[in-house]
Amino acid sequence: MRRVSHISADMTYEILTALAAFAFVASITPGPNNLMLMASGANFGFRRSIPHMLGIGIGFTVMIILVGVGLIQIFDAVPVTHTILKVVGVLYLLWLAWKIAHADMPDTRDSTGRPMTFIQAALFQWVNPKAWQMALTAITMYAPERSVLSILWVALAFGLINLPCISTWTVMGQQMRRLLSNRLRLRVFNWGMAALLVASLVPVVYAEFG
């Protein structure tokens, strides 16, 4: 996808189309958010995962705005801060992968598993390496002059497109609940989701330290 060198106050149809396509591809492809939602759908169902989905959708939209209006300048001035965020994010995601792998059947008496809350999901975006990459790339490509209006256009595009995309992963997880009613199958599924979550970190780690 070509880099957009300039965006006027009123985005052209061509740029908006390219932005929408980028938001769709970035939102629908596998990543920490989607893998965790699939696991949440399988373990807790769609309804109980709604706060998790809303936290991601709204939290990431707010993140784009804050990154665009100021935080990206910190990374430009002090690049090491981006590296620190990536390290913190990777460590946190490894912990989440461990939690998913050891999740128990949600209806057992000794189960302590709970779906992620709205606030937890919103805050998670700030330690999610893919979310950072998506936000920085979107601002760089589609709001290079970093005007408030162009940043809001980018945030709006993701706000409208991201939530339906990530919801499909929750639905896929929910559809697997009947198959995963057996404790052993659920455990295998959770370990598989945890492994995929860890695998999603490989490109981030390789790009930073490889």
Automatic annotation (TrEMBL):
One of its GO terms (biological process) is cysteine export across plasma membrane. Pfam families: LysE (PF01810). It is a multi-pass membrane protein. It is found in: Cell membrane. InterPro entries: LeuE-type. Signal peptide: none annotated. Coiled coil: none annotated. GO terms for molecular function: amino acid transmembrane transporter activity. It comes from the Bacteria. One of its GO terms (cellular component) is plasma membrane. The chain crosses the membrane at residues 12-30, 50-72, 84-101, 151-172, 184-206. Keywords: Cell membrane, Membrane, Transmembrane, Transmembrane helix. This is Threonine/homoserine/homoserine lactone efflux protein.
